[in-house]
Amino acid sequence: MAPAQPEGLPAPLDGRLPASAAEASAQRTLSLYVHVPFCAVRCGYCDFNTYTAVELGPGVSQDAYAADAAAEVRWARRVLADSGVAVRPLHSVFLGGGTPTLLPAEDLAAVLDQARASFGLAEGAEVTTEANPDSVTPQSLAVLAAAGVTRVSFGMQSAVPHVLAVLDRTHDPDNVPRAVAWAREAGLGVSVDLIHGTPGESLADWEHSVRTALSYEPDHVSAYALIIEDGTRLAARMRRGEVPPVDEDDQADKYELADRLLAEAGYEWYEVSNWARPAGPDGTAHRSRHNLAYWHNQDWWGIGPGAHSHVGGTRWWNLKHPVPYTNRVRAGHSPAAGREVLDAPTRRLERVMLEARIRDGLPVTALEAPGRAAVAGLIADGLVDPAAALGGRVVLTLRGRLLGDAVVRRLLG
Question: N- to C-terminal Cα distance for the chain?
Fold first, then answer.
């Protein structure tokens, strides 16, 4: 079941953005997210806006999706220009889902070609696709690399078959190293995603998964704690007592283990759930620039059903189901279901919530007086790095990362 959309104001059919969205827009980066809402099988823990072939119903074809996404890319270019927002070369592009690589590589390349034609790509732009390890071949990865993709993020989740079974992941674990090798041969950077805290996963299981992922020598690792979302098969199984509930202490132990193993292997955390291999003079080359754009609240346009966008404090979200989304796009209307314009207090709150999560930290000057006063206590409690605070930035310690929500509450006063 896809998550409910937020409440908001009606979005105009012409997509026009308020004047506030254009303020200082040339000083911000612009990224593109392309949501491909198709999956071969729905995983039991997933509440993303995705659909299997049997769930799509009439009126939607995977074969036509690239053309519809490209049409929204052209629409985005026009709306930004008509709204007085600076049309900038794209800082990053992210093909997510769902499973983008269920589409032919040539279709994804066509969407990227349209993005390049409409906006251009900034020098050194990062272009990422997510992929199931079973959904790529050496040939498809070569086509994507030739089209401008620079990195691929593989959904590994675990190296342990019984853990993958609980998650309803159907990929063959043996395909992960093969897919990584093919990506390397195509000249692509590699990230792998892991999930910890699955019911029935032991600490030894998790250590095996992390060490296995490290054996593939990826550039980047994401490790997320499993969240049980209402409406998913896994939540229903848990309610029926078929699997045990998630243990937060167990998840904390696994986070600490992952952080230690990754650090020993030369990876540095740069966001609470993300680690990268350092490279280059500033050590940031393998960090996900697209995700950092989110955490720094830059501008991004989300393409596709249910995709969210943010430009200069205006946020909107597209119709969830592919049928009404497609009908709107083909009619030349905005596919947005609703939007909101954030006021100054909300933007300050979001800045604290987002920038407190990253290694570069949150400037102390971004806090209101109660938050600045709370920093000393957070240092005393071992939640904030004292040296960074003396330098004017709030940076979480390992313990602070585990208790990040509590830290943010105190910083917000």
Answer: 36
Beta 189-196 vs 314-318: how paired, if at all?
unpaired
Q: Check: CB of residue 199 under 8 Å from CB of residue 243.
A: yes
CA-CA distance, 352 to 98, in Å (whole number)? 30
| pLDDT tens-digit map of 235-262 | 889 889 998 999 999 999 999 999 999 9
At the topology level of CATH, where does 19-295 sit?
Answer: TIM Barrel (3.20.20)
Q: Tell me the backbone φ, ψ of residue 399, rounded to 5 degrees.
A: -65, -35
Separation CA 411–CA 301 (nearest Å): 30
Cβ-defined contacts of 286-293 (< 8 Å, 24+)? 286/189, 286/219, 286/220, 287/220, 288/126, 288/128, 288/191, 288/220, 289/91, 289/92, 289/126, 290/31, 290/33, 290/91, 290/92, 290/93, 290/94, 290/126, 290/128, 292/358, 293/29, 293/31, 293/91, 293/92
Q: Is the pTM of this model over 0.85?
A: yes
Contacts of 252 (CB under 8 A, 6+ apart): 402
Whether 265 and 214 have beta carbons less than 8 Å apart is answered as: yes
Instruction: Break the chain into its structural domains and give their ranges.
Output: 19-295, 343-413
- Tens digit of pLDDT for each residue in 71-94? 999 999 999 999 999 999 999 999
**DSSP letter string over 147-176?**
HT--EEEEEEE-S-HHHHHHTT--S-TTHH
pLDDT digit string (tens) for 278-325? 876 666 689 999 999 999 999 999 999 999 999 999 999 999 999 999
> Cβ-count burial of 67 within 10 angstroms (0-12 exposed, 13-18 middle, 19+ buried)?
middle
Q: How far, in Å, CA of 190 to CA of 219, rounded?
A: 5
